[in-house]
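anyone seen this seq b4? input:
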Amino acid sequence: MWPILALSVTGLAILAWKALEFRAGRRDASGLVVVSTIITAEPMLGILGTVTGIIQTFGALNAAGGSANPLAATAGIGEALITTAAGLIASLILLFPYNVLDSQVED
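predicted toks r here
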């Protein structure tokens, strides 16, 4: 989940910088491509966390030796849900200000 947080902070910093540039009259698209890439990558990182969480769950169930303990699966399922939600929320937080700035770019 740390990569998602790091990308979000980077994206927010770029958007804040671009907002200040737009306010000063410089309305070019530099930097917005990076934010667009971050918006695209964050849900994918969340899905990657989902996959690793499910792998962890199956590993815990396999280690139980066939006696399926529901508590053994909770950590992996929790990781899967948290990383998916984090990736989606982080990308949505960046998406709306990005669209506002992108619509104001002058060619």
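The mean pLDDT is 88. The CA atoms of residues 63 and 72 lie 9 Å apart. kinda curious what u guys think
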